[in-house]
């Protein structure tokens, strides 16, 4: 972290130089990333600079998607629909009653998504595979891994789908937008205490 490597005055000078170079408004997260500093250290310094009238700030936030506990389990193993498909006999079918007795009711959570993906079929109370295993791709698991890595999904509608399935949730990522005060930056960016 920069605040551990730099003295407080050097850390402040580095932040002031970043603000002076722009582009403005500057995002406090970008400052933290650029200097390898913690967001908390940057926020604290920005608040101090704002109190001294060196900068103006505006609080902002963006939604960030995070995995729920159930979502973490899916990302680490497989989705309920994939597990359901894998639990079905490779050849033939099994009655829904026998399948539930053998695997428990929890596995049937994947029934709706497996049907939607057209992986399974039910006829007269019998459950069977509808496609070859080579055609089954656990997109839910792959999407949740992507979300855990803070990478955007290709289809924004999937966020709503996974939130409805209680696999992800949205939290607010708070940060500050920083503008310099021109009169201050006509002089070298150094603050006297």
Explain this structure to me?
By secondary structure, the protein is of the alpha+beta class. It contains ten helices and six strands, in the order ααβααβααβααββααβ. It has helices spanning 2-5, 8-21, 28-35, 39-51, 69-76, 80-87, 96-103, 111-116, 139-148, 157-164; strands at 26-27, 55-67, 93-95, 120-123, 126-129, 168-180. The protein has a three-stranded antiparallel sheet. A hairpin with a 2-residue loop joins β4 and β5 (126-129). It is rod-shaped, with a radius of gyration of 26 Å.
Rg, Å, rounded: 26 Å
Shape: rod-shaped
- What's the oligomerization state? single chain
Which range does the strand content fall in? 15-25%
Structural class: alpha+beta
The helical percent reads: 40-55%
Uncertain runs are none
Element-by-element helix/strand order: HHEHHEHHEHHEEHHE
Alpha-carbon distance between the termini?
A: 24 Å
Average pLDDT level: 87
Number of DSSP E strands: 6
Biggest beta-sheet profile: 3 strands, antiparallel
Give the spatial strand order of the biggest sheet: 1-6-2
